[in-house]
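Bench log, entry 3. Co-assembly request; chain sequences pasted below exactly as received.
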Amino acid sequence: MKEKYILLNRCKLELESRSVNESFARAVVAAFAAQLDPTMEELTDVKTSVSEAVTNCIVHAYPERRGKIMLTVGIYTGGLLRVQVRDWGCGIADIDKAREPLYSTLGEERAGLGFAVMESFMDRLRVRSKVGAGTTVTMEKTIKGREGNQ
Amino acid sequence: MPVELIFEKCRLTAALSGEIDHHSAAFLRGEIDQALAKFQPATLALDFDGVTFMDSSAVGLVMGRYKALSAAGGGLEVLNLSPSAYRMMKLSGLQSLARLEPKPEEKERVYP
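Structure output for the full assembly:
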């Protein structure tokens, strides 16, 4: 039977797609997730994944203009942390291709690892996108925490 | 200073510090490439000891420097990687292009 998660707390943040906001976004998520008492490793995993998702919005979703990024962080029963990063940018034509490690449309200074990192550092990753309408990335991780969450 | 550059005996060491993301990588890339052009070292060592956070932009930074160096016949070393940094570098297959060294005190955790 599928476990049911109940929302305990939530935070929503709207950002302009400026690269200076990458560090701000991951710091906000880290500060909000602190109530789950995560280990340093769990916190690094979450911060890195948020950084990847927000960077994707800045470099891919809005390549030639500024746009809105909506970051939603939810804390659920059982220590589940859910982070959603949404944009209203250009969208992804081929999601499977975009999720492939080392695939990048932006040349050699980008490693093409964004989704691979989110997938490997979080427990679950879902990507929904429509060309011309935007992309929503949802990722989840169960935070066991330093004391062990129940 | 987010990067300190030391050139000694044909070896350029770039000691990175702080947080490396897409925003900060552009500046680091400029500083390192300027030093590469000036000194043309046989080896470039990127030292991550002072790095407190990095995402895949740091992997892009390493890969970009590898391409510039290998074209000129130089070697690349990536030193003092934290466990998560090491994991990310390995996701990209960089271990076949450069020497990757975890932080000495983390070695047991990096190699399970």
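Chain A has four helices and five strands. Chain A has a mean pLDDT of 94.
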